[in-house]
Amino acid sequence: SILLLRACLALLAWPIYLLSFLGLWEPFCRKIFFPFFLEKIGTVHEKKCKKHKEELFRNLPDFKGPSGELKLLEIGTGGGANFQFYPEGCRVTCSDINPHFQQSLSKNMKKNQHLHYEQFLVAAGEDLHQVPSGSVDAVVCTLVLCSVQNISGTLREVLRVLRPGGAFYFLEHVAAEHSSWRYFWQQVFYPTWKLVFAGCCLTRELWKNLEEAKFSELKIQHISVALPWMPIEPHIVGYGVK
């Protein structure tokens, strides 16, 4: 039944599959569709997650370095939706594999002038070689681990760039319970969703990857973020300390 429903969904999305076959969908998606979609759905998601993010980032100032400053690297910055939650004077380095979020990023930078913006890196989470080892106090990653090519590689890079005692903050959508209807529909949507939304995977059990990473302390909370007609309700939120 899953394969049949996948085929039906693929038929509905056949123009996108055709564009992908011709090599036209990925550049269009990266430059136009995905930034537009993320800005629209991000507005709804931010409203649903605001309280969770306020609680998550509340202890960010506790991880200031010996200099008294908080140096923060955000992986997958996108349009800068998290800037509002960072403390006064925080020095932010932005990174994203997709450089086509300029409009919303500039808008959020202007709205959040309590921060110091260091630089913007076009980089994948698995390869942050431009960031020196042990150079940041905190790394933030929200709705990004669902689409990285290598989760373990990304977490290794996170641990490399963090100073000892620094923290990694995350909020990610994850796979539903295997016995649930949500998981059934996640499996149905999986191939088409991944194609349409720039490699986003619906069924990753990211808490397992985080538990396997070498954090000295790890806090994970499973939450639900209800989004109408979207198969991404189950989320995890928390932080790990190096």
Question: Would you give an account of this structure?
Answer:
- With 242 residues, the protein is of the alpha/beta class.
- It has one domain: Vaccinia Virus protein VP39 (Rossmann fold, 3-Layer(aba) Sandwich).
- It is 39% helix and 22% strand.
- The protein is built from seven helices and seven strands, in the order αααββαββαβααββ.
- The protein has a seven-stranded mixed β-sheet, with helices on both faces.
- α5 links the parallel β4 and β5.
- α1 packs parallel to α6.
- The longest helix is centred in the first third of the chain and has 32 residues.
- The protein is globular.
- Pfam families: Methyltransf_11.
What summary fits the major beta sheet? 7 strands, mixed
In CATH terms, what is the architecture? 3-Layer(aba) Sandwich
- Look up the CATH topology: Rossmann fold
Strand content: 15-25%
User: Residue-averaged pLDDT, rounded?
Assistant: 94
Q: Regarding CATH, which class?
A: Alpha Beta
Principal-axes geometry comes out as globular
Distance between the termini: 44 Å
DSSP, total strands: 7
- Rg over alpha carbons: 18 Å
| pLDDT < 50 runs, ≥5 residues | none
Strand order of the largest sheet: 3-2-1-4-5-7-6
Contiguous helical run count: 7
Share of helix among residues? 25-40%
Number of domains: 1
CATH homologous superfamily classification: Vaccinia Virus protein VP39
H and E order: HHHEEHEEHEHHEE
